């Protein structure tokens, strides 16, 4: 199973991994993003528009197989860290989960319990869907025996509490990635990103989190708003970097093309927020 996860393979090979962020529902959107050459596509069930209508998990269940079918790792960002949400995301076949707004090491330990099968954790076993998102498709037994090691459990460090406890969180067995959400992190430490300006205190916090991950032997990830900024974070040594979201990239490209049609200078995207 690990060999079927493009993101897991990138980590095992020690190379940096680039991904895209899906906020707009639809399997065709998922496929477009997965065809770009990335290692992973994150299905955003926290801030994205993936509510699924009457079925709150419908859009997630559309996106995950569409991404996996193209050999790319589907990662699901949960709306919250509740155990049933963890189970539903992993049962959809996600290769990993990202949990927002973590605050304490104890919450990290509880998350690991929800994400892992016994004897390590408390995850229930029964979905016939999850194994179909890997190629070759594992048997029920293979999935049960391999999932604990093959699936990625990732947490966002974006609160004051988590920043203060980052070394303890990084040390939690079963947490694979410390992922930085710069906007919420800035807001929560009293240094919000305003008009693209990143205060030194926020820059220092980002460095602290990256260093804590490295010290604990874990991977570090970060959200960026475009390719130039993603390259900057890659140069800083981050392991997992988002390059763009579908929503903002679509608007940016359409504005560029419209400006070209009018013979005007198009919008530019710099290296800062």
Automatic annotation (TrEMBL):
Q: Which GO terms describe its molecular function?
A: aldehyde-lyase activity; metal ion binding
Q: Which GO terms describe its cellular component?
A: cytoplasm
**Zinc: is it a keyword of this entry?**
no
Output this protein's name. HpcH/HpaI aldolase/citrate lyase domain-containing protein
Q: Which organism is it from?
A: Stachybotrys chlorohalonatus (strain IBT 40285)
The record's keywords, sorted A to Z, are:
Lyase, Metal-binding
Q: Which family does it belong to?
A: Belongs to the HpcH/HpaI aldolase family.
Keyword Thylakoid in record: no
Note the InterPro entries from the entry: Aldolase/citrate-lyase_domain, HpcH-HpaI_aldolase, Pyrv/PenolPyrv_kinase-like_dom, Pyrv_kinase-like_dom_sf
Q: Which Pfam families match?
A: HpcH_HpaI (PF03328)
Q: Which residues form the HpcH/HpaI aldolase/citrate lyase domain?
A: 20-248
């Amino acid at each position: 199973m690990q060999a079927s996860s493009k993101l897991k393979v990138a980590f095992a090979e020690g190379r940096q991994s680039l991904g895209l962020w899906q906020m707009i529902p639809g399997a065709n959107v998922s496929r477009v993003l997965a065809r770009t050459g990335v290692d992973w596509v994150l299905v955003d069930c926290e801030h994205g528009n993936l509510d699924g209508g009457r079925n709150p998990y419908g859009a997630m269940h559309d996106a995950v197989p569409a991404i996996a079918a193209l050999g790319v790792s589907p990662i699901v960002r949960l709306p919250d860290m509740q155990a049933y949400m963890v189970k539903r995301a992993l049962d959809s076949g996600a290769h990993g989960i990202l949990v927002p707004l973590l605050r304490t090491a104890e919450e990290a330990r509880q998350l690991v319990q929800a994400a892992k099968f016994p004897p390590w954790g408390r995850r229930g076993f029964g979905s016939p869907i999850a194994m179909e998102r890997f190629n070759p498709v594992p048997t029920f037994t293979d999935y049960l025996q391999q999932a604990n090691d093959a699936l990625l459990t990732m947490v966002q460090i974006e609160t004051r509490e988590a920043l203060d406890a980052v070394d303890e969180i990084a040390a939690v067995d079963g947490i694979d990635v410390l992922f930085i959400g710069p906007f919420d992190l800035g807001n929560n430490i009293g240094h919000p990103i305003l008009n693209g300006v990143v205060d030194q205190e926020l820059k220092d916090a980002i460095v602290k989190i990256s260093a804590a991950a490295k010290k604990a032997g874990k991977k570090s990830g970060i959200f960026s708003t475009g390719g130039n900024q993603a390259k900057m974070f890659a140069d800083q040594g981050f392991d997992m970097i988002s390059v763009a979201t579908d929503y903002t990239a679509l608007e940016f490209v359409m504005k560029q093309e419209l400006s070209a049609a009018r013979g005007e200078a198009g919008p530019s995207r710099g290296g800062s927020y």
